[in-house]
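#dry-run=false #mode=assembly
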Amino acid sequence: MFKAALTSSKQARAGVRWRVPVAVVAGVVLLAIPLYADRFWLNLGSFAFAAAIGAVGLMILVGRVGQLSLAHSFFLAVGAYGYIWLSSPATEESWGLGLPSLAAAVVAVALAGLAGLAFSPLAGRLKGIYLGVASLALVFIGQHVLFTAEPLTGGYNGRNVPELSIGSFQVFGVEPELSLFGVPLRQAERGWYVTLLILALTTVFAVLVLRSRVGRAFAAIRDGEVHAAALGVRVARYRSVAFTLSSVYAGLAGVLLALLFERVVPEYWDLFLSLEYLAMVVIGGQASVAGAIAGAAFVSSLPLLLQRYSDAIPGMGGAVSNFGPAYVAQILYGGMIVLILFYEPKGLAALATRARKALTPRRPVAADRTPAA
Amino acid sequence: MTAPGARLQVSDVTVRFAGVTALSGVTFTAEPGTIHAVIGPNGAGKSSLFNVLSGIYKPAEGSVRVDGSELIGLAPHRVTALGVGRAFQNASMFAGLTVEENLLLGRHRLGRGGVFAAGLRLPYARRSEREARAKVREVAEFLGVDHLLALPAAELPYGEAKRVDIARALATEPRLLLLDEPAAGMHTHEKVEVRDTIRRIAAERQITVLLVEHDMGLVMGISEQVTVLDFGQVVTTGPPGRVTSDEAVIAAYLGRAGAAQKARSESQPPS
Amino acid sequence: MAQLLSMLVEGASLGAVYALVALGIVVIYKSSSVVNFAQPSLLMFGTYVTASAYSLHGLSFWVALPLGVAAAAVLAVLVDRVLVARFRRTQAVVAASIMTIGVDVVLLTEVDRRIGSQILTTGDPWGNEVVRFLGIGVAEARIAALVVSALLLVLFQLWLHRSDFGVAMRATAEDPETASLMGIRLGRVSATAWAVAGALAVCAGLFIVAYPSPGLDTSVEAVALRALPAAIIGGLDSTTGAIAGGLLVGLSEVLVRGYGEHLAFLGQGFEEAAPYVLMLVVLLARPAGLFGIREAVRV
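#status=ok
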């Protein structure tokens, strides 16, 4: 038993050694990609980064606190539509506050957080799966509002998303012209860099929170709420803190997705979107930040890749087949939720651990390191 | 870390579950800085009593005072803030965390910093974190578990987990420490260690210790006072010498449960 | 008054159908602590088997019905034995419940693909003639749904109270470890619960596709999903609660639709959100549901 314990703590330390160079290489590659890749891949990346922010938020709730939420699409929608409402000028048919777009983006994220906070009477008291079912309500209430509150949401037809600009700088646009190593930085390139930057910042924030006393309280609630309470952890409070934090992340992802879409329609923000985010978290291994990001990249790119290459995949292309990209994508990640929970609940995170173990030369653990009992 | 021990006054505590009375009019007092044991056969109500004392159960009637402050009706985290620390019967570690993180959870209520302070690395949160780690190391050294700090808690052997659990309860800086069967499932030499540890806690830190334990040798060897529970009622409270010779105790407890006790100690799982 | 009365009958009829689905969720929860999110997909699957046997293969309803019920029951048992059973030892009920979400996605996607844009009928014997009584008119299909569902619910409750399975299920819900020590085979209890849940879901599905929708199409799954708020409203661990929750959800839906013009400020189609709003209200007042048992532990 001791041997095993020492070995794994050693490996944990070895993991830290690996982490820095891997992060540096990954960072350089991610920064260089816009210089070489075309629009398709850059858009794919931007969507994946935006989704990853949402996935990290859901991971904190599901993987670290053990609380299930199916309301993620609702909070994504609050961010997206909140931004549209705050930044659009008011017209005869539609509401708007006409705030400067950057302020609108920030306030929209805060709105999502407030919506999460408003749910805390339930988010704090309900546990695990119970919260999952209760949170379904937000999705259906949200869908109802999106389809019927026309001045706010544009109803069935949706609404255009105003551009995000800081002064005369279009964050996701073309003005003013910029270039890097002779490559012009237009919409796709800017989308890549901006979403990547925000993902990096929010990831660091999440990691710091999870390593702090707040993160420990989360894990304690997940591993044993009664014992956590007896040690002085305010269980209900931390549950609602986690729910609010995860809704802030969802709101931010929603704002970014709206900006990338340029126009949003209500049916996108349905229960199925929540299940996609859940799939990202499960595929990533439930409790891992890096895993959630990888899961988000996988789930959000899958339909786009299938669409692009559907002609090359036998049985998928053509007008007659009803095995369309959407069908294949849904079967794949529905199936992956099942298979990963069945075979490897630690998901992609476990693959990374295994790769690291395989790459780290094993050193025999000296018997004299075993502490006296 | 030398907060003086608290006086615990339990009066007329009654707990009922769906018609079953788990505790009925339980009354006793544990004096500051003493070791006070609660014994009784299985099902006598010891666990219910501990759950009342840590705010997890709310009794139907009665009062529990810690240095005069009423504990009944407080949420568990407020009970901890009153200075009540608890180690658990089966030494439940938070399995996803390291030993150090488990101990840091004991410091949770004494730490500062929420989501923003942590995510933005604000100075006061970092200072609080540094202090917590130093205190945790100190407690770990006091109980001789400092060499385990970096291990994942899930991989601790049972005996070590029991000690880490006590360290975690001590990290909350209690004035009253509840120990729920600290020697259960331990070998003889480990029991000696547990006995010394409890004595040191009471002697060096003046913490009041309330102890639930089945091992009579341990209980009688270290306790100043012993309260005997049976069927949720107090049979008697007194010094060990008097309790063991009490007719009612022998009849109600030792006579009936002696056999079960013996069977239990023989079938202890290897740690 | 007549309008209200006819809405109450309609709501009770729809509610009894929801109760059948919700009862399956509760029985599974009591016997394995898993919330089965795949219940709507089991309903869709079994109903699809029945509807396609009738519409596409020309079998009579009385042959197609047992086929669909059996298919859903067998599939449910397979899900339990092959997938969910893996989590029984570790008691990882959240993971097991999330897994049923994956099952639901896969199964629904495949059934949806097969249905495509068709509307399949099941050839059920109850027609749409209006029956008049007490001054109101109600479609025959709705009366049939109410009578048959009520009968099934009563029989089922009796069975749960009298049978060995009922005792075993309640003992398991109380304390699985002790139940197991007393000789109750947890695997068998759980498999029985899943089979029953699958069968009940299909019985409900047959009434849902008779009314309110004109046949089996892909919109039925949203209707089936309302069994989840029904189960939560009643309390996940109470079979009585499932029936009460089902009725409340059915009534809320029908009443909101019926009084639509007075509720115009809530927007059109609010009846689809009403069961979920009701669930939130109930949970705020009683976190364990109307008939659920509150845990003694406070944290």
